[in-house]
Design a protein that fits this description.
Elements: H1 23-26, H2 51-62, E1 71-72, E2 76-77, H3 78-82, H4 106-129, H5 138-141, H6 149-163, H7 170-187, H8 191-204, H9 207-210
């Protein structure tokens, strides 16, 4: 996620040889116009969503029931049971852990990847099983072995709308297009399906998706 920090430019005050103030001295300096329409945060701080919030947001974005998003051994919920502590949760009753860990660990990153990959694989499987009812990847599911640039861009935009709740930038669409090219070169006919999973995974594991 890119955090834009606006630069405040102070206006220069014109010097005057008389005791009276010139017009330029009376007027307040005008700050330079920001290139970004996004207002800067008054609290320049990011917080990790935590396992439950992240899993809930991801399940909603992928239109997958929360209980089906990710299970270890097909039985234990990834976010609420298996990886709960590494993702900032507590377990006072069975593990006597009363406070969240002060810092994230290597296991935290692995847990996030596990949840995201499971959800994205599930969504891709559903969409490619019936492209006419696809939620995210309809253009890829119905586009044959080599969907065009328009189909790739449509999927990229939809990923950002659902996962980030905003429009994708030109650079983000281009980056996912490059990812498709790399995957298609290596995977051949399986390229569209693999791209669907990995493009979803790439967006779902960005800082913007993990923090608020």
């Amino acid at each position: 996620m890119t955090i834009l920090v606006p630069i405040l430019a102070a206006g220069a005050v014109a010097a005057s040889g008389s005791f009276g103030c010139s017009k330029s001295e009376d007027e307040a300096p005008k700050p330079a116009a920001s290139a970004s329409p996004v207002a800067p945060s008054t609290h320049n701080r990011l917080k990790f969503k935590g396992g439950e919030r992240y899993a809930t947001d991801l399940a909603e974005a992928l239109a997958i029931p929360r209980g089906e998003l990710c299970k270890e051994l097909s039985a234990y919920d990834c976010a609420d049971v298996v990886h709960k502590i590494s993702l900032g949760g507590i377990e006072p009753y069975r593990q006597t852990i009363y406070r969240p860990l002060p810092d994230r660990t290597v296991a935290s990153a692995n847990a996030v990847d596990r949840i995201a990959l499971s959800g994205c694989e599930s969504r891709a499987a559903k969409d490619f099983a019936d492209g006419s009812k696809a939620v995210l990847f309809g253009e890829l599911a119905l586009g044959g072995a080599a969907p065009g640039k328009d189909a790739q861009a449509a999927v990229a935009r939809r990923l950002y709308l659902r996962l980030m709740r905003r429009e994708a930038t030109t650079e983000e669409i281009a980056a996912l297009g490059d990812l498709y090219t790399d995957i298609a070169t290596a995977a051949g006919a399986e390229g569209p399906r693999r791209f669907a999973t990995l493009a979803c995974f790439a967006v779902a594991t960005t800082e913007e998706a993990l923090f608020y």
